[in-house]
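Last lecture ended with a question: if I hand you only a sequence, what can you say about the shape of the protein? Today we answer it with a concrete record. The protein is Flagellar protein. Below, first the input exactly as provided, then the predicted structure, then a couple of comments.
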Amino acid sequence: MVILHRLKGAEFVLNADLIETIEANPDTIITLVNEKKFIVQEPVAEVVEKVVSYKTRIHGLPRVKEDA
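The predicted structure:
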């Protein structure tokens, strides 16, 4: 589960396992496997980072930093 913010600022928790796509158009639009869509304040890279961090935590894996 990841904490995100709707465009008007309301915080909500999204089940990261249901994400099918994330796109910037120019707002960040998250489409779930059931075709429901969420528009959020966070940029695509931040959403991806939150999902990776969540999955790393739940699977107990060590975090590996990527070279820039």
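Comments.
1. The two ends are 27 Å apart (CA to CA).
2. The chain has one helix and five strands.
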